[in-house]
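Sample A.
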Amino acid sequence: MTGIRQLADHLNISIGTVSRALNGKPDVNEHTRKRVLEAAQVLGYVANQSGRALRKGSTGVIGFMMQTGREITGEGDTFFMSVFDGVQAVFARHKLDLVALLCSSEEDPDEYLKRIVARGFADGIILSATRRHDPRFDLLAKRKIPFITLGRSLTDVGQPWIDLDFEGMAEASMERFIAGGHRRIAITRPHDDINLGYIIVERCREVLARHGLHLAEEHIFRSAPNETAGYQIARDLLACKERPTAILLINEAIATGLYRGLDEAGMVPGRDIAVIGQQSPHSHFLSPRLTAFSLSLRDLGIALAETLLASMPAYAQYYQHRPMRALWPMTLVGGESDGAARASRSERAPLA
């Protein structure tokens, strides 16, 4: 790899002349410019991006912060790969690069972000896994770093955000269960302080209350977003004193484990318990076919990127009509897993 100093030595001209020739400055004669460009190609010249970033006051990099670890991603996370594809499709229009900022599940996310910010690593940040109260928002706002959040929080510094429409998911699911005759309904939520858990619980309670129903605390299952957690939910659900006849799964990964746990107990989704979840590449192989919410993850990524750029002066002109905050719609696709309630269903299957 050849840098500007090696290129200048090879041509026996000054570094300043080489730099001006490479950058198309008018004070370099055409003969010299041609020599420099030809030599740069032959020798494999690579620009020093750090130096360029210092001169321009930008890095050309946008970071996407997410947490990793088997407890979080289970056997593999396809959600973010599809989102990343949409994000980078937008950034490529502007010669920007997306870099995944992977915070280990064993590290405090606030301290991790402080380290990233201190290094001046990125021109903007996309934050995921937003918590009920999230100090990362204040940190980025104080440092005047443009950012967007995939999710909401009670912490609000006026930043743009896009969140999945969990209120709509809760509303549609509860109404569908109730219309099917279900009265004891369970839901899942994240095991930690992720904000979407609060949103789901609050809206489910509101909908059930309209019908004179109640969401029991023992029917709210906290879990990590992975297959193993889904399996444990099945066992915990079967152990309930008053067993629910329906359950809403808010994470796409846990459906596989739940199906396995129910199968071991001789229970069939849609016959012995109604199940609504979220679509994933794996859910298409579940039997009975899962009734689930679907969304375009790539389009979500495109919207995240365009909304972030709309908040950055250098790119705002391209995305003037992009709303700064939006609930991302999800579509309920009917399957076979959410059948109507049947009398004495909760007594039908023994605990495995």
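Sample B.
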Amino acid sequence: MVNYREIFEEQGLDYTTYREMVDRLLAEGKTTGPDNTEAMLHYSKMNVQRMSRVDKTANLTDELILTIERLKGNYKLLVITEGWCGDAAQIISVFNKIAVASAGKLDLKFVLRDQNLSLIDAHLTNGGRAIPVLLVLDETGNEVLLSWAPRPQILQHLLKEWKQETSEMTVIAEKLHGWYAKDKTQTTQSEMNELFKKLG
């Protein structure tokens, strides 16, 4: 049984603290998680640039802002992520912007997947530990009301197609990040809008 409130309160990092942790680890020649190979360090460095770009360039749509403003209750947002994850780098800045726009209705925290295997194993995507995972908890942090993972649906389908065409991960990663660059967070925001509308 996963204790969501305990994980949120004891391990959860706010967005700034999470970003600072990733930067600090990179300065020490490490990334989050147990794999500190050159490849993983490279991914983490690229992801810092991606997160910074989304921080600077993405603006929430009027529709999403309105949905967030209309929220009647308060909720906790728990995000399972890792510094080396390319999808997370393109998405978690949007979660942060949503929390900021909520004027205190949404309390956002980040936890690391590989330090919380029982948590991620309760929220697998097609049997895999795909991240990021967004969990919308009730105000007490005890109950999961909604969840979303690990990327927009259309991209999930495209990724499946790309993996059938090639097993070369660098080619797939290039297509993935090319898609995100063209989309400019719009599809992620659209899905977030539909998700938060369910809270009424």
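B remarks: The chain has nine helices and four strands. The chain has one domain: 4-197.
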